[in-house]
């Protein structure tokens, strides 16, 4: 859509922000709120795919209903003539941008604080009956130490799922394998995100030096759900320890490593993980 276009009554397109495998994102002016916001729409070449229209509307309804300080907010969901979700404009930058911009890794205290905030958002989602399933640095925006989680496009209730739902380098082993998924999959997502923030490296990649990968069934590249024949390094062995990549306080490194246990039952629960990060944060802050 060109600048000046009205995608829905009360909104005006200012600029095109980004294109994913199935979405266009626009910087948009809200006449009612007298502020900028972000409009998410299905790409014109994929509007014939009913499942994508439904996915966008479902995500928008969730984000409009949910109220949490560490989740992005949706202002409005428009169903016709074309599905559109209006989100708050976030200041700051994604963790993925931050990782590549900073010359030095974030301080241990900042890593622990981020852990507390991610646990808070994910615990809330789990209380709403949803798993996020795509936690990664590009889906977290941070501004002045305050994190917000984005993108519920592949979120679903706990239960059976096909192989490969999520982003290649960030999948838990059970997501890569397919089968029953539980809150432990998002504990893995918190751990893999903090691992990259703390060390500057993903614990698993495609073997080609990638630092991300395709989101299957999600919004990064569009993609379709894997047929189960793909190779996943997460299924080959455990992640290198955090301590092998960076010197961190022992308890913080062990907490991150615990999130990346190949066995979902061996990972900490949401409350246990939050308590561990909070204890580390208090110790590092001298509280």
From TrEMBL:
Disordered: annotated segments: 206-247
Keyword annotations of the record: ATP-binding, Kinase, Nucleotide-binding, Serine/threonine-protein kinase, Transferase
Transmembrane parts of this sequence: none
GO molecular function, one term: protein serine/threonine kinase activity
Pfam families named among the record's database cross-references: Pkinase (PF00069)
PROSITE patterns, alphabetized: PROTEIN_KINASE_DOM, PROTEIN_KINASE_ST
Taxonomic superkingdom: Bacteria
UniProt feature, compositional bias: Gly residues: 209-221
Domain Protein kinase: start-end pairs: 11-281
Group of enzyme by EC: transferase
SMART domains assigned to the protein according to its UniProt record, in alphabetical order: S_TKc (SM00220)
EC nos: 2.7.11.1
Name of the protein in its database record: non-specific serine/threonine protein kinase
Classification lineage: Bacteria, Bacillati, Actinomycetota, Actinomycetes, Kitasatosporales
């Amino acid at each position: 859509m060109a600048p000046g276009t009205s995608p829905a009554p009360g909104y005006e397109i200012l600029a095109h922000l980004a294109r994913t495998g199935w979405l266009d994102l626009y910087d948009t002016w809200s006449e009612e709120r007298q502020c900028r916001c972000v409009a998410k729409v299905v790409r014109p070449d994929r509007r014939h795919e009913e499942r994508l229209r439904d996915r966008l509307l479902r995500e928008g309804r969730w984000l409009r209903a949910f109220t949490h300080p560490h989740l992005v907010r949706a202002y409005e969901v428009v169903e016709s003539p074309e599905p559109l979700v209006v989100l708050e404009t976030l200041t700051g930058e994604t963790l993925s941008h931050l990782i590549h911009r900073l010359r030095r890794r974030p301080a241990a205290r900042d890593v622990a604080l981020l852990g507390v905030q991610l646990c808070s958002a994910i615990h809330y989602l789990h209380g709403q009956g949803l798993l996020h399933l795509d936690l990664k640095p590009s889906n977290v925006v941070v501004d002045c130490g305050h994190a917000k989680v984005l993108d519920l496009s592949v979120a679903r209730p706990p239960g059976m799922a096909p192989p490969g739902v999520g982003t290649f380098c960030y999948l838990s082993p059970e997501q890569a394998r397919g089968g029953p998924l539980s809150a432990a999959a998002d504990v893995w997502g918190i751990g893999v995100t903090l691992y990259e923030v703390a060390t500057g490296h993903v614990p698993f990649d495609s073997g080609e030096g990638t630092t991300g990968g395709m989101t299957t069934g999600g919004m990064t590249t569009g993609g379709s759900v894997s047929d189960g024949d793909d190779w996943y390094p997460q299924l080959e062995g455990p992640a290198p320890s955090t301590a092998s990549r960076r010197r961190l306080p022992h308890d913080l490194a062990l907490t991150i490593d615990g999130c990346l246990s190949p066995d979902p039952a061996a990972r900490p629960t949401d409350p246990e993980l939050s308590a561990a990060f909070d204890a580390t944060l208090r110790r590092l802050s001298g509280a």
